[in-house]
Structure formats: C-alpha cells, structure tokens
Amino acid sequence: MRQTRPFTRRVRSGPLHPEITGPGGEALAGQRGFLRDQLEEAGGACREGWQVLRRRGPDRVQFWFIALLVGIASGMVTLAFRKGIEQLQILVYTTHDVHLHSIAETLPWYWLLAVPVIGGLIVGQILHRFTPDGRVRSVADVIEGAALKEGRVEMREGLASAAASLVTLSTGGSTGREGPVVHLAGTISSWVSRRLRADGMTGRDLLGCAVAAAVSASFNAPIAGALFALEVVLRHFAVHAFAPIAIASVAGTVVNRLEYGNVTEFRLPEPGALNFYEELPAFLLLGLVCGLVAVVLMRSIFFAEEVAGRVQGATGMPRWLRPGVSGAMLGLMAIWFPHVIGVGYETTAAALTGQLTLGAAVVFALVKAAAVSVTFAGRMGGGVFSPSLMMGALTGLAFGHIATAVFPDISGSEGVYALAGTGAVAAAVLGAPISTTLIVFELTGDWQVGIAVMTSVSLSSALASRMVARSFFLTQLERRGISLADGPQRYILAMFRVSAVMRPIESPTAAPRAALEELLGAGIAIDQSETLHRAMPLFDQGDTAILPVIRADGAGEPEIVGALHHLDALKAYSRALAATAAEEHS
C-alpha cells in the first residue's frame, strides 16, 4: 500500500514579510501562517482521497461507464427497431403508424386481408427455425432472467423474437413495440455480462440499465424508463442500482431526442381542467372500471392462447402456420375496423383529444381487445403496453362522455378522463403503478391532472392485482410454472439444482447406502436434475431428513448417485435469501 507523505509545518525564522513589523504585523503573519497550515492539510486530505479513489473507486466508476455504453447501445437498437417498423409500414401500407388508420381506410380490402396473412407466415417461419418452442420472447422472459438466470436472457431466441415482432408490427399485428425492444436490449446486456463474467448482482444491474434505456428511447420518457426497470424487471429499488440505471436511461433518451427531438408521443389540445374535490369520486370509480377492463383484457389474451393451443393440438396444425391463421383473422377485422392495425397510436391520440363519440370508443375498445387476443394467440410477437394504453384511453373517454353528460356542472373535459384511463389500464396490466403514471405524464407532457391519474391508477392496480398474479407478465410466468409473484422466498429454491447441493454417494458424509436404498424402495427419491423447489416438499412427505438422489436414464433401474440432506438444502436456501436481501437493500 502506497504511503502518503506526512504533513509538516514549515517554520521560518523571520516575519512573513519583512516590511510588516510591530504587533499588528505579527498578528497578520500569524493569521497567514494558520491559513497556510489549513490549505496544506486540505491538500493532504485531497491527496489521500485520490489514493482511496484509485484503490477502490475505479470499479464502480468503470461500471457506470459500462452502463453508459449499454444505454447508448440499447437506445440505438431501439431506435433501429422503431425505424424498421416505420419503413416496413411505409412499404406495405404507404405510411407509418401515426397515420396508419386513416390510410388503411383507403386501401383495397384484399390488401388489408393479405398483408397480415403474409406477415404471419413469415413470423411462423422465423420462430419455427430459430426457437425450440415457437414462442416469442418478451418482457416476462426478461423478468425471469433477472430473477433466476443472473440477469441473462436467451440470445438466439431473443434475436429471432425481435425479427418476428418487427414483421408482426409492420404487417398489421395488434401489439406494441415495448416488449420486443426490452428483450432485445436484454440480449445486449447479457452479451456484456458474459464477456465480463459478471456475477448475478452485476448482471441484473446491467439488465436493468438495458431495459431502462430501451423504454426511454422508445417513449422519450427517461424518468419512467428508469423506474420501469427497477419496478418491473428488478422488482426492487436498491440504491446501488439507481445511479447506473439512471445514466443508461438518460443515454437512451438522448438517442431518441437526437432523432425525433424533445417531443411527446401524444399532444393534448389544452391542459385538462379538474374540479378537484367534487370530481375525485368519479376518478375513483374510473379506477375500478379500468381495473376490470385490464383484467378482461389479460384474461382474454390467456383464454385465446389456450383455445389456439387446443385447436393446434386437435388439428395437428404445424406451428409455423399458427401465426398465419391469426394474421388471416386480423385481416378480416381490419377490413371493417382498420383501427386494429399496428400499434394504434393514431386511435389513442384521437381518444385523448376527445375526437371519438361514446359509441365509437366502446366499439373500438371491444374490437381492439379481440385483435390483441388474436395476435397473442397466434404467437405473432409484440408487447402489451401500447395496446393497454389504447384500451385505457378508449375506456377513459367512454367514461368521460357519461360523466360529463350526467354531471355537466362539476365535470371537466372528456380528455382528462381519457388520460387517467390510459394510465389506469396500463398500470394494472403491467403491475407498475409508479412507472406507468410517470410514462403517461411524459408521453403527454400534461402534469396538471396528476392527482386524477394517480387516483385512478391506485385503485385499478389494487383491484387487478387481486384478480391475476399481480400483472400480465407475472401471470404469464405463473402459467409456465414459474412463481415469482410472491417474492424470492418462493422462487429462490428453483435456482438450485439438486446435483449442486447433494453429497456424492462416495462421500463418507453422504448417508449409508442401505438407508438410501430403503427410501428408494419406498418411492422416496429425487432426480439429480430437479431443483430444491421440487425436493423440499418430499422431506415433509417422507418424514425424513435425507433424500436419495438418483440418475434415471429410462433404460433400467435408477442409480443412486448421492444423498440430499435437509440441512444442506436449508443452508443453501438461507444463504440465498440473505444474499438477495443484501442486494435489495444495498
């Protein structure tokens, strides 16, 4: 360790300035000497601080620099994805999503039908060739990667999913672009984590940086992007993660603004008016209505996926054809309702500005829910955030038309209700009331009706979270058998393979072979490929402190390869819980 030079005082034999003499001069010389001493001590403290920074600081500073690079890369990939959608939409529909609905009304009916079918067939081929299960990766897989895979997501499948979502959103798929870009950014952070051989904590932080930058670059919403990564993906607000995620989020926003400028996605005609005390009960009721709408939307998607899976299994339909069938159904809807094509920002903007009647808002909401369900059922790719924004805007506008008609003297404009509904449905679907509220503010630039949005968001989130597994993404994982909604105490056991915790059979501390064979004969055993999540209930069921660990090849009798001790499993569980708590509170 390098030693710092000790501080010394320089003593002079005469006065500081020969011209200063007498009592007054001596006092002045003493003050200057004291000042010199203080400056030397301050300089020594700075030198010591620099040495500490050199010894301890570069790791963290270097990580912030890496977070900045990850943010820039994620922002650029997100921008490229968005530009790709725009160019392909111009190619097939002669315009991009801002005016897609208006242009689609003028296109021939056979074109509206054919484009989603062709797009679906292309998506089917992409997923069939490059994914083992024909499923598009999205935000739920990123959450799983953060919780169970040390911040890593699938690379090959993720790139294929991004390509499939790009085609889907360009050819009439009724989903959003936030899910694909979040997973695409996750592939960037996963690549960096593998190159750095990052541990789980660092990998999760890098994943959060990538997600924040992707959301910020997609919606020009830096505050919401950072909070989305913390609230939805990492699901904690640890202080150590905030700085790099904020840096990456700002970087993603800068990338967006260099291309599009400092503009919001939606523009309201004028700031909304709100009679705070008299009108708040209406926004409380709107929150409950939006919570129910969010639940209906989510359950419709899951129901459609189940039906599509059963139809595919019953008919023997090849999986590459499934997106094409959904494309045909979307094309038929688009002939009469071109509003369902693409992300739907034009219709959302029309709802926020009050340009739709009550009947139109209700019909468009129903058709949009059906179109989103059909798109997800066909595994065509895309996210759920933009559809939930559109559903919320339409629901809020319909509610606003009724509220202003029943109570015209105390009600504000319909646009305020549409804005509050936008946040309320989206927050309930995403399970992210904080970040969604801020996204709505940043998308519209209207901060004057914040109390209305927060009121509706709070009730919609509270209601919907009790009717599904907290959110759309966590419910998706729950349906795959991955339980993350109840916290780490549930899913941590799934992170440990039995083979990593067991004691080998040749170890003298394993267990007597005779005892293990007796338990195996009683049907009490665990395969070495299983996790502790599967093993822990067996200890209680068999009333034993030891489980035989077997290797079954399917050809003959299972072979005992080790013993899993209840105490070892509990120790591994305890250490993992402690590490998780330390990370979330650091």
From TrEMBL:
The chain crosses the membrane at residues 63-81, 109-127, 206-230, 280-304, 324-344, 356-377, 389-407, 416-441, 447-469. It is found in: Membrane. Keywords: Chloride, Chloride channel, Ion channel, Ion transport, Membrane, Transmembrane, Transmembrane helix, Transport. CDD domains: Voltage_gated_ClC. GO terms for molecular function: chloride channel activity. It is a multi-pass membrane protein. GO terms for cellular component: chloride channel complex. Residues 1-22 are annotated as: Disordered. InterPro entries: Cl-channel_core, ClC, ClC-type_chloride_channel. It comes from the Bacteria. This is Chloride channel protein. It comes from Mangrovicoccus algicola.
